Amino acid sequence: MEEKERDNIIQNTLQTLTLLDYKVFIMFYYNSKKIKDIAKELHISESQVKVTLHRIRKKIRKNLKKGGYDFE
């Protein structure tokens, strides 16, 4: 799979997220904020941030596999 195709799949997946999930993802991966800081800023628990990130990564992984990207 080409890098561009992979990026498109990831971008399409991010567009399906709720606003809160999208904010968590952006704050963690693009703004390099700590889980504790994200939780405080968004008024949610740290465990909610962790669960949200886990679910987003799982969704991205699933869509990449559908698109032919293999992790093994």
Furnish the topology, listing elements before pairings.
Elements: H1 3-15, H2 19-30, H3 35-42, H4 46-66
Helix pairs in contact: 1-4, 2-4, 3-4
Mean pLDDT: 94
N- and C-termini, Cα separation: 14 Å
Task: Bin the helical content.
Answer: over 70%
Top CATH class:
Mainly Alpha
Tell me the series of helices and strands, N- to C-terminal. HHHH
Give a count of the beta strands, DSSP E runs of length 2 or more.
0
Structural domain tally: 1
Low-confidence stretches: none
Helix/strand-derived category reads mainly alpha
Quick one: biggest sheet? none
CATH topology: Arc Repressor Mutant, subunit A
What is the helix tally? 4
CATH superfamily annotation: Winged helix-like DNA-binding domain superfamily/Winged helix DNA-binding domain
In percent terms, what proportion of residues is strand? under 5%
> How large, in whole angstroms, is the Cα Rg?
13 Å
Shape: elongated
CATH-defined architecture: Orthogonal Bundle
Structural summary, described in words:
This protein is mainly alpha-helical and 72 residues long. The protein has one domain (3-61): Orthogonal Bundle (Arc Repressor Mutant, subunit A). The chain is 75% helix and 0% strand. It contains four helices and no strands. It has helices spanning 3-15, 19-30, 35-42, 46-66. The radius of gyration is 13 Å and the shape is elongated. The mean pLDDT is 94.
Task: Provide a brief overview of the structure.
The chain is an all-alpha fold. It has four helices and no strands.
Please describe the structure with a list of short key phrases separated by commas or semicolons:
72 residues, Arc Repressor Mutant, subunit A, 4 helices, 75% helix
